[in-house]
Amino acid sequence: MWNPSELSWSRWAQCSLMHEGLWLAIGLGVLGLLVGSFLNVVIARVPQGKSIVMPASSCPRCGAQLLSRDNIPVLSWLLLRGRCRSCREPIAVRYPLVEAGNAVLWLTLCWWAIQEPGRTSLLPLLLILSSAGLALAMIDIEHHRLPDAIVLPLYPVTAIGLLLCQLIDSQGHWPSAVVGAMIWALVIGGLWLLTAGRGMGRGDAKLAPVLGAVTGWMGVAIAGIGLMTAFALGAIAGLVLILAGRRGRQSRLAFGPFMLIGTLFAVLFGQVVWDLYSHAIGL
Predict the structure, then answer these.
(1) pLDDT score of 251 more than 80
(2) How many angstroms separate the CA atoms of 37 and 100, rounded?
(3) pTM of the prediction?
(4) Per-residue pLDDT tens for 213-247?
């Protein structure tokens, strides 16, 4: 028999979860903007071997130290109309884009995590990896390398993050994570060795096991989807650039961003893709 009290309780619980999810999204959005502002420092200084802590942020052209009110993510750039307060030279649009982009990444991962109960334990690790990945992608596009200063710390961070996932969920997926790491390492690392660094960079080979482990934690098939997506996107981008006359057939294309995008795609949509594929072939 229909019970009005049960319906009221269900609706209250649903509203409560939506309310908590909204506040979580707002908090992560604001924090994502702040972290994005810090990522701009990382992107500018790490390739040059400079400290990311000192000195304080300054205009790269005139050297004037930025005021506190000029360090508000996105908003300061808009209020200053994209120019330095001191010398009035243009400030690259990359800065607000990185800040906003990191916030969007965090909000997207937050949305993904609250869709199913078991996903939230993986969220902190994914937030760290997404921000590190954004910095690595920007550096790789500009300098064609993935600095060890960012890549190598991701190994212990990933191990600790997955261990916390196991403690929270009371179950581990270490076998599939190890297999995922091995698949990515063998494919990317193998291409690096076989081509003597021409087809794949050493930084790509170092980053691959981390991405493989994280996607593999969600399933070996998810790790495979992430890797295939990376190669598909890289091939499409290379073909487009060749046809547009921007690159020759022997020109190198930064592959790190495609690895990172493939990982993000696998996390967000890998299970959906695998379910559709399994249904299509009758598994």
Answers:
(1) no
(2) 9
(3) 0.88
(4) 999 999 999 999 999 999 999 999 988 888 877 66
Residue 10 has pLDDT above 60, yes or no: no
Closest by CA to 76, choosing from 25, 33, 117, is: 33
How many Å apart are CA 70 and CA 96, to the nearest integer? 12
- 172 close to 282: Cβ distance less than 8 angstroms: no
Closest CA to 277 of 216, 219, 212: 219
Start-to-end C-alpha separation, the chain: 39
Q: Are 125 and 96 in contact (CB under 8 A)?
A: no
Token pair of 99 as six digits: 């800040």
The highest-confidence range among 14-28, 68-82, 136-150, by mean pLDDT, is 136-150
SS3 54: coil
Residue 168 near residue 182 (C-beta atoms within 8 A): no
Q: Average pLDDT for residues 178-190, to the nearest whole number?
A: 96
Instruction: Please state the rounded mean pLDDT for residues 118-141.
Output: 94
For residue 57, give Cα distances in angstroms to 3, 13, 66, 136, 249.
Answer: 61, 46, 6, 20, 40
Share of the chain above pLDDT 70, in %: 90
The number of CA neighbours under 13 Å toward the Cβ of 121 is 18
- Tell me how far apart the alpha carbons of residues 94 and 85 are, in angstroms, rounded to a whole number: 18
**Integer Cα distance of 50 and 34 in angstroms:** 21
Partner residues linked to 58 by β-bridges: 65
Q: How far apart are CA 184 and CA 2, in angstroms?
A: 53
Helix (H), strand (E) counts: the chain: 10, 0
Cis peptide bond prior to 55, omega within 30° of 0: yes
User: Using CA atoms, how far apart are residues 162 and 237, in angstroms rounded to an integer?
Assistant: 32
CA distance 206 to 228: 18
